[in-house]
Write a structure and sequence with these properties.
Layout: H1 2-20, H2 22-45, H3 54-73, H4 78-98, H5 104-113, H6 115-141
Helix pairs in contact: 1-2, 1-6, 2-3, 2-6, 3-4, 4-5, 4-6
Amino acid sequence: MLLLTYWIMTLCCCLYAAAKGGMTGRLGAAIILFKTVAGVLVTVIQPNWQVTAYSLLQVDAACLFAFLWLSLRSDYHWPLWSTACQFLAVAIHVTTLVQPELTPKVYQGLHNLWAIPMQLFMVRGIVLDRRFRRRRGRMIAA
């Protein structure tokens, strides 16, 4: 049930971002969808959380660089917060390199933890940015 809720939330957040977030929202939604689908594929192929999941680390690192690029090119603020969440997901992988005896459940839980705030930051940021731009437009028109 929790997994189904996550997929529904991901779909809703990405649809909202694609519809209301402009080009930045569409790119952010694409990155999140790529991260989610690639993460599922990688964990189906290599479901072992006993050691560092290098293929998942590669997916997360690629998404980190994509969010960083988006943050640097965007006028919006939410990509910075999503980049921070993605950075923390990558940091969990690096932690397993430094401390290989990390419990597999902790590794898996901490890795998956940052996906939800990342999506919520995206949606909340788009809402706030749209509100700010509407108010700014009214102030300029007045």
